[in-house]
Amino acid sequence: MNEKMNKIILASALVLSIMACKKDEKPAIVGTNNEGKELVINAEGDTVIYEAPPREEAEIIKEKENLDGIKAANDGSYKFGLNLKKGSTYPFKIFTKSTSTESDGKQSATMTQESTTTLEYMVKEVKDSTFVLDVTYKQFAEKYSDGKESFSFDTNSPTAPTNEFLKLRYDFNKAVVGNTFQMEVSTRGKVKSINNLWNVREKVKNKLKDNLSPEEIKALDEIINMAINDEAMQHMFEESMAYYPKKDVKLGDTWNRTESAGSANSKMTYTFESIENNIATIKLSGTSTGSETKNMPDGSGMKLHQSLDGKVNGTVNINVNSGWIQNAVMDKDETMRMTQEFQGQKANYSSKVKSNTKIN
Fold first, then answer.
1. Nearest C-alpha neighbor of 96 from the set 260, 332, 348
2. Could you give the 3-state DSSP secondary structure of residue 6?
3. pTM of the predicted protein model
4. Pairing, β 108-126 against β 130-145
């Protein structure tokens, strides 16, 4: 075979490989080596072992349910993260219904409470790895029932309740509604900074301070600072995004999150259950335990024994395009027991709380 024929065959193979790449994204195979590995002609005209090129992200997205906020990798793992759009708004509504039973071993009382908090997150700016959000308070609602009477308020109602306690709650929350502060969060749902919350506190204070004495205004300041602070808002947001794994996961993988406060410890286990129809589903289960014995600080000699035992189960559905929570539901059972011991005498108390929480 002469040199001219070699060049013609080489050129033909190169043309065929280019055509094949355009059609199938794989060059023509011109043979195999001694190990059985496929050989192709590269752009320089050399015969080399074929190596599949990394897939384009568009191909992965198409293959993996049009993923964007939750991204799929070549090895079948998924990276969880936020992918929020500038100018778009994202809802956050959390509803909790709980039933608590208090008992001293002889008598018991049961109370049912419902609470709704609605916020709106608007994306003001998108940075390289963070999102700047305008967070607006939209609604607060509460309902209490002891089986005989029920009381409620809703800031969407223009009329305040007649019950004195609930009217105070209504007036306070009504003053909060409509105010906006700013939050910067990472793509992983971690709060980086909170700004302008002090301005919200001042606006609430100015709406409520009329006809209050200096002592009452001081007390109002304390209440506002406890109810509206950076830590509380950070906790609320990160708790709703705590389902994100810190590393890439595959279907069926689990990850844990543990927390402790004093003698109380909690452990949550998350399982990446499924992904379809642009929804990623995570199952969660967890426990909370703790116990301690301490002497009362008043010097009376009284001892206090406390214990905690709880469990939680739930499901979280996440929109794969935005990474935002589509909806979530959690059921929690928690029992707290307390024993007061003094001069050989004991008094036992218990509190059992069963709650159901829904987000969005």
1. 332
2. helix
3. 0.73
4. antiparallel
